[in-house]
Amino acid sequence: MSTVCTRILLVLLSCSPLAAVADDAPIEGDDLEVMQTQAFLNAHPDMKYRTEGWQAYAEGDFAQARTLLEKAASYGDKPAQALLAEMAWKGQGQPVDRALAYAWADLAAERGYRLFVAQRENYWRQLDGGERERAVEIGQPMLATYADEVATRKLNSHLLRERFSSANWRRRKALDVVVPGPDGLRMVIRGHAFYQDKFWEPTKYREWVDAVWTDPPKTNVEVGDPTPAGGR
Question: What 8-state DSSP symbol labels residue 14?
Answer without folding.
Answer: S
